[in-house]
Structure formats: C-alpha cells, structure tokens
Specification:
By secondary structure, the protein is of the alpha/beta class. The chain has 2 domains: 132 residues, no CATH class; 246 residues, Spore Coat Polysaccharide Biosynthesis Protein SpsA, Chain A, CATH 3.90.550.10. Helix content is 53%, strand content 10%. The chain contains 14 helices and 9 strands. Helix 7 links the parallel strand 2 and strand 3. It is elongated. 35% of the residues are buried.
Length: 422
C-alpha cells in the first residue's frame, strides 16, 4: 500500500509539472520525471519509516547521511533487477506481457522491501544515537510478516524438531514417477535397493508408471518380480508429473515417504542421510544442491539461471533460509502428507506446493546438502516455458493461504480439531 501511494504520487507530480506548469519540452519532461521520481521516493521512505518500521532514531544526521542514501540504493537495485533480469527472462519464456509486468512489479517491490528492511531500517544505531533515543526507541522491530520464524547467526533457517512419539520409522517408502524411462529406470531402482538393503532400512519402492509409451512398464514388471520391496502401479489420473506423484502418495505404505526421480539424478546415499536425519524428530527433510556441501553436475546453464531466480523469489516472499524449494527430492512423514492434502498441482509445480504447504502449515523441517546429476539417458520432462505461470499460481496460492487463512490449516488447529472429534 505504501508503494502504491508513492506510485500515485509519482504520476500526480508528473501530470502537475507537465500539464499544469507547462514543462512540455523534451528536456523539461525528462526533468519532470526525475523530480517526480525523487520526490515520490522520498515520500515512500517516510511512509515506510512512519507506518511500516516505526521507532528507532530520528536524528537528522542518520536520516540524511545513512538511511536515505541506502534507501535510494535498495530502490535502484530492485528497479535494475526488474528491468534487466526479470522482464527479459519472463519475456523470453513467453509469459503474457501483462502477467510479466505484474510479476516484475511484485518481485521488484518485494526485493526493495527486503533490502530496505535489511540495509536501511534494521541497521543498528550507533551507541550515541541509541543513548539519545532512550530505551523505548532504541530498537526497530522487524515487521511480523517478513521475519523468519527463527534464524541462526548466518541467516540460515533453523527450525526446532518436534518429535511425534516414536523416533524410528518401521518403513521408508520411495515414490518414483516414471514416464518413458526405459533407459534409466532399472539402474535407478537397482542402486536404491542395493544401498537401502546394505543399510538394513526397511523400505518399499513404489513406482508410478505415467502412461509410458516405451518399454518402461515391462521393465517395472520385471523389477517387481525380482525385488520383493519394489512394486508399481499405473497412474489412474491424467498424464503429468504432479498427477503421478499424487497417485503414489495415495498408495504408499511406509511411515515416511521420499519423492525420488527415476533418471538417476538423485543419489541413493542421500536417501539414507535423509532417513537418519528424520530420526532426530523432524517432520520433513529438504535437500539443497546450492548450500555449502551441495553439488550439481551437468546442470544446463539456462535452467540453472532460471532455477536460482525462481528460488530467490520464493525465498523473498516467504522469508525462507532454504534455497532449493523447487527440487522434488524431499522426505516427509506420513502425517505431513495428510496435513498438506489435498494437493492441487498437476505438473512439476507440485515440487513447490508440497514443501511450501508443509512449512506454512507449521511442520518442522531441516535442510542438508545433496548432490544432483543431470540425466544421462532420455529427455527431461520439465518444459520451463510451460511451467512459469503454473509455478507462480501455486506460490501465490500458498502465500495467500499463509497470510489470509488466519492459521486455519496450521497443524496446531488440525490437532485441536482431532481432539474435538476424537
């Protein structure tokens, strides 16, 4: 709302200078734009300073020499990112121009908000200014909707585990969607069975054949005959990654479930590390390819760029320390799957829906570094050009739920309802 008011002020100033005062030459019109931008920027600074970030020191020296220059920097950085990165990328992906503009404005405003929060309004005051301000005004409080629930000294997300009783799971389920994976499905399943069996982890591998047109189903039949822990079923929903995973999540038998790709991109050893980490009492374990210790091999450069941009957007609007939300390879307790249902995504946007719902609904999670390797056979099923609006739809849907549902879907309310109904 503060940004909207500043934008209206900007337009009003331009109209007044050009139309009412007659600044109607090319030079004067440019000057009018500069004056309007600067005045509306200063106005927005004081709107935020009074309305959004109240308190703190109001010393003229700090306002003029520190906060206003830093605020100009944060606004300029957000504008440059929007013009030079977000608009061109979305335009190249074929996103509708109106949607492109709205997304660019929303992301730019959000980045300006976060930069302003970190650089301008939450910078510690000097000792002298704190002494002048007194105990009541010495701290500028972070807006409630922006602050992470908890953070360590480095800013990484830290969420305390919440044990649900028994800490050791009887069985781990692997849900694996497969569409035309005859070149990799056998080696993927064999590697997982070998590693989990060596660790003596009770498990099942449930493969969902997503109406494959090659030899995938016949190979799945052979694998299920060879390994007692392997079974498969045919996707009874329409074709699509999200539908296939949802089909598997409705049929797995274990106490916890990991979503694993069928193209050998996820390391079986990381599944084991997930499983043991879950024993510490967390509800979810999320892997990151981009934290310290993580690794990607043969990641296409254009996909990597878009991946980091999308994850940055998600991090900003949800205030997350976790930086790899879009990766499907994650582990959930059974009750988390029940708590985030019903799932609505039909395609790869399910990879975003599941973790964001789990986080927003109060389930605890931890993160750990993982290794990802690009497929060596077959063709990637992810079509970036088709997925942009679908990812955005799911992200905004969960963001609205988080901020407008007043906790109705939070796990604490689910427990209360269970007690009432029980």
């Amino acid at each position: 709302m503060g940004g909207g008011f500043a934008a209206l002020l900007n337009l009003s100033l331009i109209y007044g200078l050009i139309t009412l005062l007659g600044w109607d030459t090319p030079l004067l019109r440019n000057l009018a734009n500069l004056v309007a931008i600067e005045l509306s920027l200063i106005a927005s600074f004081f709107i935020y300073r009074i309305w959004v970030w109240p308190g703190g020191s109001w010393s003229p020296k700090r306002l003029l020499l520190e906060q206003l220059p830093l605020y100009h920097f944060s606004a300029g950085a957000a504008l440059l990112l929007r013009v030079l990165v977000i608009f061109p990328v979305l335009d190249r992906l074929g996103v509708n121009y109106l949607l492109n503009t709205l997304m660019g404005v929303a992301v730019g405003a959000t980045i300006n908000y976060v930069l302003s929060d970190r650089l301008v309004f939450n910078r510690p005051a000097s000792r002298s200014s704190q002494a002048l301000a007194g105990p009541r005004n010495s701290v500028i409080y972070r807006p409630e909707g922006l602050a992470p629930a908890a953070a360590d000294a480095t800013g990484a997300a830290v969420v305390a585990p919440t044990p649900l009783g028994a800490s050791i799971h009887d069985q781990l389920s692997i849900v694996m969607p497969a569409y035309n994976e005859e070149g990799s499905i056998v080696s993927t399943v064999e590697a997982i069975v070998e590693v989990l069996s060596a660790e003596r982890i009770a498990h099942e591998i449930l493969i969902v054949n997503d109406n494959s047109r090659d030899r995938t189903e016949s190979l799945l039949h052979e694998l299920s005959d060879r390994y007692q822990s392997v079974r498969y079923l045919n996707n009874y929903y329409p074709n699509g990654f999200g539908f296939a995973v949802r089909c598997g999540l409705e049929n797995f038998a274990g106490d916890a479930v990991a979503i694993v790709m069928a193209d050998c991109s996820d390391r079986p050893e990381d599944i084991v590390r997930y499983f043991y980490k879950l024993q510490e009492g967390y509800d979810c374990v999320f892997g990151s390819r981009f934290m310290k210790g993580g690794k990607v091999i043969d990641y296409p450069a254009h996909k990597l760029f878009i991946n980091r941009l999308a994850n940055l957007f998600i991090q900003v609007i949800f205030s997350l320390g976790f930086n790899d939300t879009t990766n499907a390879f994650k582990l959930y307790r059974r009750d988390v799957i029940e708590g985030i249902s019903p799932l609505i995504s039909h395609h790869f946007n399910l990879t975003v829906e599941m973790p964001l719902k789990a986080i927003s609904r109060g389930y605890s999670y931890t993160t750990m570094p993982i290794t990802w390797q690009n497929r060596k056979t077959g063709v990637s099923k992810l079509k970036i050009k088709e997925m942009g609006s679908r990812y955005l739809l799911v992200v905004l849907y969960i963001w609205l739920e988080r901020h407008l549902a007043r906790g109705e879907y939070h796990r604490s309310n689910r427990k209360k309802m269970a007690k009432i109904n029980g």
